[in-house]
Amino acid sequence: MSFLKRFARNRGALIGLTILVVVILFAIIAPQLYPQSPWRTVARPFLAPFVMDRFPLGTDTLGRDIASGLAHGARVSLTIGLVSTLVALLIGVPLGAIAGYAGGIVDDALMRFTEFFQTIPSFALAIVLVAILQPKLGSIVLAIGVVSWPPVARLVRGEVLSLKTREYVQAAITIGQPTARIIWSQVLPNTIAPIIVMGSLMIGSAILLESSLSFLGLGDPNLMSWGYMVGAGRTRLLDAWWISFFPGVAIFLTVLALNLAGEGLNDALNPRLARGRE
Amino acid sequence: MTGLRFGLALAASALALGVAQAQEPKKGGTVHVVVQPEPPMLMQGLNQNGPTNMVAGNIYESLLRYNEKLEPQPSLAKSWEISPDAKVYTFKLQEGVTWHDGKPFTADDVVFTLDKFLREVHPRWRPIVNAQVDKIEKVDDLTVKITLKQPFGPMIMTQEVASAPMIPKHIYDGTDYRANPANNTPIGTGPFKLKEWKKGSYIHLVKNENYWLKGRPNLDEIYWQIIPDAAARAVAYETGKVDVLTGGSVDVYDVARLSKLPNTCMTTKGWEMFAPHAWLTPNVRNGILGNKQFRQGLMYAIDREFGREVVWGGLGKLPTGPISSKTKFYSDDVPKYAFDPKKAKELIKASGYKGETIRLLNLPYGETWTRWTEAIKQNLEDVGVKVQVENTDVPGWTQKASNWDFDLNFNFLYQLGDPAMGVARSYITSNIAKGNPFANVGGYSNPEVDKLFADAAIAPTDKERQELYTKVQKVLADELPVLWLLEMDFPTIYRCNVKNLVTTGVGVDDGFRDAWKE
Question: Which residue in B254, B370, B388 is closest to A222 by CB distance?
């Protein structure tokens, strides 16, 4: 059965993918849809949603269009989710591969190092990193990457441990391929499937982390992100619920969609596992 | 006819009697007040942070108090005289005043406080006493004479409780002031004594039974509640846990909501002495910000009315220059800057601005300031100025501001009743010094302004002082060393059955002497 068919068999995955495509489209056409800066005051403050057609989701404490904020926020949230996941993979995959392949004392050292990071509560570490490095786009991406790589390293290490005993790897060793080349061309390509699955789930948690940071006022003050919008509206939750509600829903749906799609990918890429579940 | 007149007179006197009865303070009762944040210490001679003053201003006292018009009133000084040449101030002290530990308060304490203790440790009194005062002497047990080197008009404004709290000589003389263990158990002459300070929770003050002003204080106890979160403070008021929300302790948005609650009064009075003045400081050392035309362009670009109306919920007043309209020697005869993006664009273009990024440092004092930063950033970007906002925490802000590491920086400063005390410091060359975020951090320097401020401080008559201050306001409003944004109002929210709470120019800072609860 082809990959697409297996993916499509999971209805949740299809729903997730649909939502995701919508959000991504929304993010791509945001500058065309709302050419003005989302920070600009466009109407009176605290305009309720569905009152004026021009501002379907209402306005916030300073009279800024919430729909525009959502569209531009989608760009920020998705970009941060994607880039910080890449950062985490860039740290986690090589570390895991080296640990798994080398074994022995190198493995021990690298895994203790990984565990050291795992013992620190990741959100607390992210807060500290952002606070030290100043809240800017780069430091937020770095902080999220730094706190989310350990599971990647452990996953890759496990895969490599089992792969390196396979015959084709033994063969490569026998014909004298350099170690780096063996890891790169024989071992790693076979770990891609689980990495993709994990990565798609990590984008979701990265978006959540960024939102939490922004909610606490540790976001990049020059970027309109969903978490920032929720945080900025929280003091008015009683009388202007919509300021926090819509971006909250956006975060919820996007993270849910990523998780559903990730599950689907898992099923599609690990057919044996999926069949066992049926 | 006569009967009618008699009847009217009777009615009038009955009315007067009724009013008098309504004003008769009730004895006893406990009031819960919010203090935000928790004060670092309560020894007011050593620390004059806002929260310290709020609590300690009811434990300590000074020679004078100031009413809402900032006129001096008797406190520990029963009366005072100023010699015709305006150089000798003679203070007669109240009789029968004792410290909280029972020792008598005398002229020796006053001389010790002003000449030794505060000269050494007080950042505001030290420059005044060193530059202006020739000698401070005891005449007799209840009389103190201060002789000035030259006439100094602001002298009479220097005896507010946070500026010159009286310190007990018998406890501090000959000790290391900052290390004295008595700092933890403040001894003053004030209407309330410290009973207990449960760190992170509350500060408990109780009535001083031997207070020198007979019949005062009316209240038995004050609890200063420490609640770190703004939303939780608002809830504490709503649920009845606290009776008074001091200025600035709740979000602007909550002010409107809370002041509509039943039995709730709101006042913006009680800040006349401080008259907080908010502005943006351009760092004139940094490239284009040194250009006057550019700064004027920024001023035209900023929608200050929007800030007042929307960001600050309509509280406050737009300033015209360096001196607040609440402070002495204010003049509105200055160049004015209405919101005018078109004119802003022209000026910015003419200034030679080439699209450099301007860093805007947000003041980390809560949501309202952040919203203000966002609104102003948008204003500036609308006229083509590239702005990058920087966020940090309070220590980070203090460090950046005091080390001049910013392009534009928010700040608000107290005016302290007289331009010589609270205004000049932000503009004069001699106050360009690293290490203090409230010094002249923008680096503006103009010999003409320096001279005007220096002359105005020591000009012998108020008329001459007014002329000089009018001139300096005109110069500064044209040069814009800082961009004045708002004369801030800090509303105090309290239950209406707490009476006589705000009666002076420093509000709750020394207000509990006369306050009572119905």
Answer: B388
